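Project standup — Tuesday

K.O.: blocked on the structure for the chain from last sprint. Re-posting the sequence here as requested.
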Amino acid sequence: MAQKLLDSVRDAIRTRHLSRRTEQAYTYWTKRFVLFHNKRHPSELAEPEIRAFLTHLATEETVSSSTQNQALNALLFLYRNVLNKKLNHLGTIERAKRSKRLPNVFTPDEAFRILTELSGVPQLVAAVLYGSGMRLMECLKLRVQDVDFERRLIVVHEGKGAKDRIAILPERLIPPLRHQVERVRLIHQLDLRDGFGHALLPGALERKAASYSTQPGWQFLFPASKRSMDLETGKIMRFHLDPSTIQRLVKEAIEHAGIRKNASVHTFRHSFATHMLENGCDIRTVQELLGHRDVRTTMIYTHVLSRTRPPVRSPLDVWKEKEERLLEDKRVQTLAERSEKEAG
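H.V.: unblocked you, prediction finished:
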């Protein structure tokens, strides 16, 4: 029963062309919900059981607010789109406390120190993240054809919220990215020679235009080092780099660079936004580059910006300067009076 339910969830997600990460998250929370209620089918459960599960996550497991919200979204999707069951008002749910902390950012010097600690393709991925403000998965899912060297831009397809947008292609990354494209071409030729050469296609293209999977432009810009089997189609493919590899290497580079901040690979995105504002870029442009739906989300970086600038001056410091000037004036006057006496 549980497996059939999870298959129904997957079918509903794929019909709506949601991302694989959404599929993984929603099936995970559906399974957790069923197990929490002793393997009872969700059709037998309703609002009280949902409230009990979400409250348990907040009070017993102390999950973050974003994790609790993800679980709620998964259950709403389950009831509305899989079970076709209308939910009434869920009532009071014990909410996990939402953090109001500002995101950490690297200084430009720290960012370059981290990049120096990396090498090869991981260094190039991290440089693209810092230079464009992309999220890690947006970067790893890039195809060769998404990089427009002539117009000096990168097309981000189906970013967060299934939105497309344009990202900056930093000039200093053009030579290494051209080299990476050539490297991908050689890898693809070897795969084709061995009877493979398929790349996973997004959405319905896998059914409607399966031949695209062997075309050079559809290959991942940052391919995995080994081929592997796609569990859905059974095809041997070359996927993109595993995000955990980049996350681990960047974490190690931060430590080796001697940076004592609670930072991760995502900090490059926060740093991009903050440094763009520091360099005079208007907030609406930064909003578009980051792919934020609401400018209020981007506004958080103005608070980060004020934190990284020198603080406003205390009136006590102003008084101290006045005191020093008065003492200096008094010293000069004393010297002048002494000189007059000696001259007399």
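K.O.: great, moving the ticket to review. The chain is about 55% helix and 5% strand. The two ends are 112 Å apart (CA to CA).
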